[in-house]
Structures are given as structure tokens and as C-alpha cells.
Write a structure and sequence with these properties.
single chain; 102 residues; mainly alpha; 3 helices; 42% helix
């Protein structure tokens, strides 16, 4: 039961749409109830449980890579931001004439 040139089945398309809706809710700042979500789509429970397990695993691994939340005292443009320690980025067309000790 292949539909379309991509070779994706109708079931795969439905699972992808459900996962997309879940990720859009997360991106919007919502916290979907995972158990309710699984109850809502029992015919896709196996795929959705696998997705949730992988999503949680990646989320835990990515946690240290997320930027720290700005402190309440920080003011936009304040020199105490994380970016202040970085050198300014070179603009387009700028030639960098050195590269460390190489």
C-alpha cells in the first residue's frame, strides 16, 4: 500500500502528522500530556512510544548544549551576556589573515 512517489505509506504519513503536531505544540511552549496523547492515538501506540523514547533521549543529551537562561538582572545590550566574551564576527567580504599557529 504505497501512495506517492516517496514510497511512504498512508500509516507513515499519519504518524508523521501526529508527531509534527506534537513537536509544534512543544515549540509553542505547551507541554503535551504524553499519556493522553498515546490514548488519543492507540492504533499508533508502538510508533509514538518509540518516538517519545528517542525524543526524551535526545532531549537529555542536548540539555548541556542549550544556552543558559538569561538572568533576571540582565538588560538587553548589557556587557554581562554570554556573547560578550566572543570576538566580533567577521563581516561578509572580510579577509582573515591569520589562523592560530598554523
Amino acid at each position: 500500500m504505497i501512495d506517492g512517489p516517496s514510497g511512504s505509506s498512508d500509516r507513515d504519513r499519519q504518524v508523521n502528522e501526529i508527531i509534527t503536531a506534537y513537536l509544534q505544540a512543544v515549540d509553542a511552549g505547551q507541554t503535551p500530556d504524553r499519556q493522553e496523547w498515546l490514548r488519543q492515538y492507540p492504533e499508533f501506540a508502538a510508533e509514538l512510544q518509540a518516538f517519545l523514547a528517542d525524543y526524551e533521549r535526545v532531549d537529555r543529551m542536548a540539555e548541556p548544549l542549550r544556552p543558559a537562561a538569561p538572568s533576571e538582572r540582565a538588560v538587553p545590550g548589557d556587557a554581562a551576556t554570554m556573547d560578550s566574551a566572543r570576538p566580533p564576527a567577521a563581516g561578509t567580504g572580510t579577509t582573515i589573515r591569520y589562523f592560530g599557529d598554523y
